Amino acid sequence: MSSIYIIGIGSPYGDDQLGWKVIDQLKQSLPSDSSVNLLYCETPATDLLTALKQSNFAILIDAIHADLPIGKVCSWSQLSLLPETSLSSHGMGLSTLLQLAENLGQMPEKWVVCGIVIDPENKALHGVLSPEVLESMPVLLDYIQQQVV
Hints:
Layout: E1 4-9, H1 18-29, E2 37-41, H2 44-54, E3 57-64, E4 73-76, H3 94-103, E5 110-117, H4 131-147
Parallel strand pairs: 1-2, 1-3, 3-5
Antiparallel strand pairs: 4-5
């Protein structure tokens, strides 16, 4: 039996909460009998490795810090292409953490990192995403749902 994990990485602040907001939306839109595991992740350095080890297919959703237009939906499925950032609020950059999981033999058979490019200056209060991120969320949700069909 295939185990699919969709993991929303984030924090409760500004655009960094993107991963959590996507999980909230998926909880409402996926069928109630879905076998997809939906997880919130605030500390990838500890929580993510366990989830990756348990899954056959992992979709990781995170706010993307990249030199691309704010609001652009992105996805990667190769470690060598995943952008590294020192701007992570999670203690360790996601690409570094995935490389560690690879070295430990804990990567699932199939995985993808997806998200939306954010403005790192948006440190708004709880519950507030920037307009560009909000506008791009339906595209990201559609992409994720296509992955698990």
